[in-house]
Each structure stands twice: as structure tokens, then as C-alpha cells.
Design brief:
single chain, mainly alpha, Helix Hairpins, 17 helices, 6 strands
Length: about 600
């Protein structure tokens, strides 16, 4: 019975594919257990040693208290210096802001003048009036540039002073900040005793602890690998049988079955193998046929034609845009001619007004021909007229600047469009040539995917053939085991050895009596008050007759060495029953008696 179960166990090990050696596994397990115990002990020792007291340094605490006093005084001094610098910086920044505004105004005026000057310089006009207008503009720009240069010098000096004071203030702020950080750090350290722990030594111990913990985890993982090895599980089942641990036998046997079940196709029934094999064979044949018809080529002619159509439309529309831009360019040039004439007229009038203003400013009132008030009124009126004309002239200039800017943009845009048309024309010619050759390209990715699929199908066939070599399925093995397991009987060793005296254990362990026939009158007489003594029942005569004396009742009777009536607690009588369903054949009975 046991040998049949052993055969099932060996078959499961073979099905699992494990080639491990049980002696090597056990030796490895013993070595791993020793290492686990040693490592756990080392971790416990480290845990006991790793306390804050081990790393505490009292001398550093005294140093920090002295540093705190020094830092407090230093911060107060630096704060006073920074406040003085900040007050001076505020005054200088106000002056810088005022100069900045003046500089921006004059810069804008110069920019407008330069823009206009560049515009009028582009006009092809050799007249005296035009030359005089240009001279006036150049003189005005020179005066503005000189005034700007003076402002820039003053502004540069004030900027340097602002920069110096700001830098000084920032340096003071950085110093104060750093000192405050140090002070806060010192105060935190003084309020926390753990701050005076030797962190390097502690981190070194913590890293050592972590390394040992990781090593322990690896040991446990390796141990689990050994315990989960089918060869080890099989050995454990056999040991459970030898040691008569019936419940463990069933549990570990099911565990071994589940390990085998993890292997592909091992859970198939025998009648399903051919069906599954046919499916894989059909799948392989079908897929192989499908692949043989593939050329793994992708045609791109459709995309080339689509791109050519797009290029034709794009080139046509771009040329239309270029034509529109050319028309716009002509219109802007005509407008600029008109604006140039208006600006020249306004500038001439402004120059005449400036001459009249000089005359009024130098007017001699000694002859009293014209009252002062009349001259002043005329002067003010000229100033007003000059302002109005100046604004109008500036607006003409702005309009001309916009037109010139647009003309420049149009010119650049026309150039870009023309370059784009050229590029698209070249692409059109290239694609036209490719289309005529019907270009094709190989689809390598699709080919590799098909190869991988074929490999997977072949691997499944190999796995299925591995299952095919075993004539028993897992369900059949389980059924057979359940039948054998239900008939498996173990002798209760605790009962057999129950309270034997030391003298009996030294003399003889047990005495076995063979009883060929038990009749009612031969039944041993036991005292009614001794409840622990087991009654030996006679064999049913009808069964004995039917079996034709080929089977017999087998019991083991251990003699009583002392008077049970005198010493109740020293009862030492036992009957062990070896039969299955009351009767067993002689050969099995004798074998079980020898084993037990």
C-alpha cells in the first residue's frame, strides 16, 4: 500500500521536471537554517547596541552654547549696518528713476526722428527744398543725441551707485540670513539631545543592520525555494508516511499535485491530450499556410499620388498669394510718395515758424512801436501753431514708417513663398519619378511577429508532448491516492507506549500473539471495573466460513506486568488492531505486524 503511494509520489516528481537531489537539498536547508539563526542573533545584538547613548557627545553641547551667544551679537550688528545702507539706497533710487524717465523720453524722440530720417533718405529727390529738409532733420537729431549723451553719463553714474548699494544690502542680508540659519540650527540642536549623536557611526550601524536584514530576507527566500522543490516535498511526504502522520501526508501530497499543475498541460486528462494536440497541429498548419502566402511588402504608391495632388494645389495657391502681395507692394509705394510730400510741407512750415519765433524773441521794444502784449500774444500763437503742425508731421511720419515696415515684411514674405514654391517643385519632380517605378518596402516588423507566433505554437506542442509521455493524469493520480490513503492505517505509537514501566521497556517492547481462530468461549475475561481494557470481539463465523480460513483476525496484546486491580494508575494493557474492515489477509497482517 505504501509502495503504491510512493510510486505515485515518484511519478509526480518526474512530471514536475525537477532534477534536484534530496541529500543536497537537505544539506542546503540545514546550512540555510544555521545561517538564518546566526543572522537573526546578529540582528538582535545590533538592535540592543544601537541606542542614542552609544553615540552621544557632551563636549559638542558646550561648544554650541558659546556659539549661540556669539551669533546673537553678530546678527544685531549686521542688521544695523544693513538698515543704514537701505536708507541711502532709497534716496539714490529716486534720483535714478527720475533720470530714467528723462532718458526714455529723449530716446523715444530720437527714435522717431531717426525713423523719419531713414524714410526721407530713401526718397530720390535732388531739389533744394528736399536737401534743406534733410539738413534740418539731421541738426535736430544731433541736438537730441548730445542731450541724451549727457543724461546717459549721469544715469550711468547713478546706476553704478545703486548697484553698489544694492549689492552691499544683499550681501548684508545674506550674511544675516546665514547667521540666522546657524542660530536656528544651534537652538534646535540644544533643544534636542539627539543632535549630539555621532550620526556617521549611527548611519554606519544602520547600514550594517539593513545589509544583514536584506541578507536574512535572501536566506528566507532561498529556504522557501528549497521547501517548494518537488523533490523535497516528495521526501517530506515519505517521511510523514514513515512517521505515521496521516494528515500531513494528504496535505503535502495535494501540495505536490498543485506544483505539478503549474506546468503547462499537466492538468489535462488523457483523453484531452489528442484533442489538444490536434488543435495545435491545425493551428500550426493554418498559420504556416497563411505565412507562406505573405510577401511582407507594403505599397506606397497610393500615398505618393496623394502627396503629388496636394503639392499641385499648394503650389498654385502660393503663386496666387505672391501675386496679391506684389499688388499690395505697389499700392504702399504710391502712398509713401504722397506722405513724403506732406511731411516735407509740414517741416518747411515748422522751420518758418522757428525763424519767426527767433525774431519775436529778439524784438526790440525800445521804440515802442508795438506793445509788448501784442508781441507776446503773437509769440504764443506761433508756439501753438508749431505744436499742432509738429503733431501732424509726426503722425505722417508714423504712417510712413508703418508702410515702410509693411513693405519690408511683404518683400520677405514674397521671398519665403518663392523659396517654398521652388522646394515644392523639386519634391514634385522627385515623387513623380518614384511613382513611375512603383516603389515598395519590406515590412520587417510583421515578419518578426509571425516568426514569434510560430515559435509560441511550437513551444506549446513541445509542452504538450511532455505531458503525453505520462499515462496518468493528475485527477487519476489524486483518485488513486485517495483510495490508497483511505485504506492506509497507522498504529498509534502513543497508545502502544502508554505508561510502560521502565523495567518492561528494557526487557521487551511488545509480544505478538497470532490467533488463527477466535471463538466466543475463548474471549479473554476482563474485570468489569477496568474500563481502559479493550475487549477482543470474536470473529463472525459467517465471514470466517466465507473466507475459507484464508484471512484471520490480527491483534497485538501487550502483557500486564503488574496487578491492575492493585494499582489502577499503572495499567499497562493494550490491544492493537491491524485489520481493515475487521479482517485482512495473512500476508498483509504479517507485514504490518513487522512494521509496527
Amino acid at each position: 500500500m505504501q509502495s503504491n503511494i510512493f510510486e505515485l509520489i515518484d511519478l509526480l516528481v518526474k512530471m514536475s521536471g525537477s532534477n534536484s537531489n534530496i541529500d543536497e537539498l537537505k544539506a542546503d536547508l540545514d546550512d540555510t537554517d544555521i545561517k538564518i539563526e546566526e543572522t537573526q542573533e546578529e540582528l538582535r545584538r545590533l538592535e540592543d547596541e544601537m541606542s542614542d547613548d552609544k553615540y552621544f557627545d557632551a563636549s559638542n553641547e558646550i561648544v554650541d552654547r558659546n556659539i549661540k551667544i556669539s551669533l546673537t551679537k553678530k546678527i544685531q550688528k549686521l542688521t544695523k549696518i544693513k538698515n543704514d545702507i537701505d536708507r541711502e539706497l532709497e534716496d539714490v533710487m529716486e534720483e535714478e528713476n527720475r533720470l530714467h524717465i528723462e532718458l526714455e523720453n529723449i530716446t523715444e524722440e530720437i527714435s522717431n526722428a531717426n525713423t523719419y530720417n531713414s524714410v526721407i533718405n530713401e526718397i530720390d529727390d535732388k531739389s533744394d527744398a528736399y536737401s534743406e529738409m534733410v539738413a534740418i532733420e539731421n541738426s535736430r537729431i544731433n541736438r537730441l543725441n548730445q542731450a541724451k549723451e549727457d543724461l546717459e553719463n549721469r544715469y550711468e553714474k547713478i546706476q553704478k551707485k545703486v548697484e553698489y548699494l544694492a549689492q552691499s544690502s544683499n550681501e548684508m542680508a545674506d550674511k544675516i540670513s546665514k547667521e540666522n540659519e546657524r542660530l536656528i540650527e544651534i537652538e534646535n540642536s540644544l533643544s534636542n539631545i539627539k543632535s549630539y549623536v555621532d550620526t556617521d557611526a549611527k548611519e554606519e550601524d544602520e547600514q550594517m543592520y539593513l545589509d544583514i536584514k536584506n541578507y536574512l530576507d535572501d536566506l528566507f527566500w532561498h529556504k522557501s525555494e528549497i521547501l517548494e522543490d518537488p523533490v523535497y516535498i516528495a521526501s517530506a511526504i515519505k517521511e510523514h508516511i514513515a512517521n505515521e502522520r496521516k494528515e500531513e501526508v494528504e496535505s503535502e501530497f495535494n501540495h505536490l499535485v498543485e506544483k505539478v499543475r503549474e506546468i503547462p498541460y499537466m492538468d489535462l486528462e488523457n483523453d484531452q491530450i489528442s484533442v489538444e494536440m490536434q488543435k495545435l497541429s491545425d493551428e500550426l498548419t493554418s498559420y504556416d499556410k497563411e505565412i507562406s502566402q505573405k510577401v511582407y511588402q507594403t505599397l506606397d504608391a497610393e500615398f505618393i499620388e496623394e502627396r503629388i495632388t496636394y503639392l499641385e494645389d499648394y503650389i498654385k495657391k502660393t503663386k496666387e498669394r505672391i501675386k496679391d502681395l506684389e499688388n499690395r507692394k505697389k499700392l504702399l509705394s504710391s502712398e509713401n510718395d504722397l506722405l513724403s510730400a506732406k511731411i516735407y510741407r509740414a517741416e518747411s512750415q515748422l522751420e518758418a515758424i522757428d525763424d519767426s519765433l527767433v525774431e519775436y524773441e529778439n524784438y526790440d521794444f525800445s521804440d515802442n512801436e508795438i506793445p509788448r502784449t501784442v508781441v507776446q500774444a503773437a509769440y504764443n500763437k506761433l508756439i501753438e501753431e508749431k505744436g499742432n503742425i509738429y503733431v501732424i508731421a509726426e503722425r505722417y511720419r508714423q504712417d510712413m514708417v508703418l508702410n515702410i515696415g509693411e513693405l519690408k515684411d511683404i518683400g520677405e514674405l514674397i521671398g519665403l513663398y518663392e523659396q517654398e514654391v521652388k522646394s515644392k517643385d523639386e519634391e514634385y519632380d522627385e515623387l513623380s519619378k518614384k511613382l513611375s517605378l512603383s516603389t515598395t518596402s519590406k515590412d520587417i516588423l510583421e515578419e518578426e511577429k509571425d516568426k514569434l507566433t510560430l515559435e509560441k505554437i511550437n513551444n506549446k506542442i513541445v509542452e504538450l508532448k511532455n505531458r503525453e509521455q505520462y499515462n496518468k493524469s493528475l485527477s487519476a493520480i489524486l483518485d488513486e491516492f485517495e483510495m490508497l490513503y483511505s485504506s492506509l492505517e497507522f498504529v498509534d505509537k502513543k497508545t502502544r507506549m502508554s505508561r510502560k514501566s521502565k523495567k518492561v521497556e528494557e526487557e521487551k517492547e511488545a509480544k505478538i500473539d497470532k490467533i488463527e481462530d477466535v471463538k466466543e468461549e475463548d474471549k479473554p475475561v476482563l474485570e468489569e471495573t477496568k474500563e481502559e481494557l479493550i475487549e477482543i470481539k470474536p470473529i463472525d463465523e459467517s465471514i470466517v466460513k466465507e473466507e475459507k480460513k484464508e484471512k484471520l483476525r490480527v491483534v497485538e496484546i501487550i502483557p500486564i506486568t503488574e496487578d491492575v486491580s492493585e494499582k489502577e494508575e499503572e495499567k499497562n494493557f493494550m490491544i492493537n488492531d491491524f485489520q481493515d474492515d475487521d479482517y485482512v489477509d495473512i500476508k498483509t497482517a504479517m507485514s504490518d505486524m513487522e512494521e509496527n
